[in-house]
Specification:
Number of domains: 2
CATH superfamily of the largest domain: HUPs
Largest sheet: 6 strands, mixed
CATH architecture of the largest domain: 3-Layer(aba) Sandwich
Order of helices and strands: HEHEHEHEHHEEHHHEHHHEEE
CATH topology of the largest domain: Rossmann fold
Strand content: 5-15%
CATH class of the largest domain: Alpha Beta
Distance between the termini: 60 Å
Helix content: 40-55%
Number of helices: 12
Structural class: alpha/beta
C-alpha cells in the first residue's frame, strides 16, 4: 500500500519544487501542522539525494514560554530526521506596521540570515492554499491594488537565497491529515484562535460565512485568483524595470519626459521603486506618497514632495526628478 493520499500530496508538492534546485535545504518550522508536514515530506524526498535538510524554528518572544516551545520544536524536528536544527530568537519591533507584519518581517530576516550562514540556497515555507486565500482577502480589504490581491509569491529570491512555498496547492486539511497519518502531533498556536488578530478573525469568522453564503470552493477560487494576478503583476514589473532603466539619468535621477510618455501602471511602479531606492522605507510608503510623486510628472517644477524616511523629491530645471535626503547634515546630494 502507498502512503495516505494527504501524505502523497504533500510529498509530490515538495518533490516538484526540489527538482528545480540544488544544494542543502532549510525548512522553516513553527511546529504547526503545515510546517511539520512540509518538513517530514522534505526529509522523505531528500533521503537518498545526499542533500542536507536543516530545520529552523523562529522564536518571536511574543508568548509566554516561547523559548521552551522553540526547544520542543527543535527536538521534534530532530526526531523527524533533519540533519541539523536551529533556533533563531528575534526581536519584533517595527512601529507602524502592526504586530503580525512586524513578526513576519523579523522572521523572514532571520531565515535569510540562517540560510546565508549555513550556505543553504533554498528556504521552504509552509503556507497552504488556505493561507493564500486569507492573504487575498486581506489584500482586498486594504484596497492596495493588484500586487496585494495577488497574494503570496510561490517563489522569490532575496540576498541570493530562494524562498519557496511548495504547499500553495495543498489545503490546511491535507497537512493536518498528513500529520495524523504519520503520527505527528502538531502544536496549536493560540494566536491562530485569538480574535485580536485580523487573520484569526478572517479564518474563523469571515471565510466560513463566505463558504456558507456563496457555496463551497471560495478559498480555492481566491487562491486561483492569486495565481492569475501574479502572472499579470510579473509582466508589469518586467516592463516597469525596462522603463526604469530607460528613464534613469547618469546621476541617478529620472527623466520626467520618459515617465510622462509611459502608461500610469508602469509610471507609478517606477516612482515607487525609485523612492524605495532613495531610502524610503517600503512599509511606510503608501499610495498617497506615490500619487504625490506622480503629480510631479510632467508639470511639477517648483514643487517638492516630502516622503517617509527623510527623503524629498522634486523636478529640477533640466526636467529630471531627483530624490534628496532631508536628514540633518545630509547636504543637497541626490539620494539613492
Amino acid at each position: 500500500m502507498g502512503p495516505d493520499p494527504a501524505v502523497a500530496a504533500v510529498r509530490l508538492a515538495v518533490r516538484r519544487e526540489l527538482e528545480g534546485h540544488e544544494g542543502d535545504v532549510l525548512v522553516a518550522c513553527s511546529g504547526g501542522a503545515d510546517s511539520l508536514a512540509l518538513l517530514a515530506a522534505t526529509v522523505f524526498e531528500t533521503r537518498r539525494t545526499g542533500r542536507r535538510v536543516v530545520g529552523v524554528t523562529v522564536d518571536h518572544g511574543l508568548q509566554e514560554g516561547s523559548a521552551e516551545h522553540a526547544t520542543a520544536v527543535a527536538g521534534l524536528m530532530a526526531r523527524l530526521g533533519v540533519d541539523e536544527t536551529m533556533t533563531a530568537r528575534v526581536r519584533v519591533d517595527a512601529p507602524g506596521i502592526g504586530p503580525e507584519a512586524a513578526a513576519r518581517q523579523a522572521r523572514y530576516a532571520a531565515l535569510g540570515q540562517a540560510a546565508a550562514h549555513l550556505g543553504a540556497p533554498l528556504v521552504l515555507l509552509g503556507h497552504t492554499a488556505d493561507d493564500q486565500a486569507e492573504t487575498v482577502l486581506l489584500g482586498l480589504t486594504r484596497g492596495s491594488g493588484g500586487r496585494s490581491i495577488a497574494g503570496m509569491r510561490r517563489r522569490y529570491v532575496e540576498g541570493g537565497v530562494a524562498f519557496v512555498r511548495p504547499l500553495l496547492d495543498v489545503t490546511r486539511a491535507q497537512t493536518e491529515q498528513a500529520c495524523r497519518a504519520e503520527g505527528i502531533e502538531p502544536w496549536q498556536d493560540p494566536h491562530n484562535h485569538d480574535p485580536r488578530f485580523t487573520r484569526s478573525r478572517l479564518r474563523h469568522r469571515v471565510l466560513p460565512v463566505l463558504e456558507e453564503e456563496l457555496g463551497p470552493g471560495v478559498s480555492a477560487a481566491l487562491a486561483r485568483t492569486a495565481d492569475l494576478l501574479q502572472q499579470d503583476v510579473a509582466a508589469l514589473d518586467e516592463l516597469a524595470d525596462e522603463l526604469h532603466r530607460a528613464a534613469r539619468t547618469a546621476d541617478g535621477g529620472l527623466d520626467v519626459a520618459s515617465l510622462a510618455a509611459a502608461p500610469v501602471a508602469l509610471r507609478t511602479r517606477v516612482l515607487r521603486a525609485a523612492a524605495v531606492g532613495a531610502g524610503c522605507p517600503s512599509s511606510e510608503l503608501f499610495r498617497v506618497h506615490v500619487e504625490a510623486l506622480a503629480s510631479l510628472v510632467p508639470r511639477g517644477r517648483g514643487r517638492e514632495v516630502q516622503l517617509p524616511g527623510h527623503v524629498s523629491a522634486a523636478v529640477d530645471g533640466d526636467g529630471t526628478l531627483r530624490f534628496r535626503s532631508t536628514r540633518p547634515g545630509a547636504g543637497d546630494g541626490v539620494a539613492g
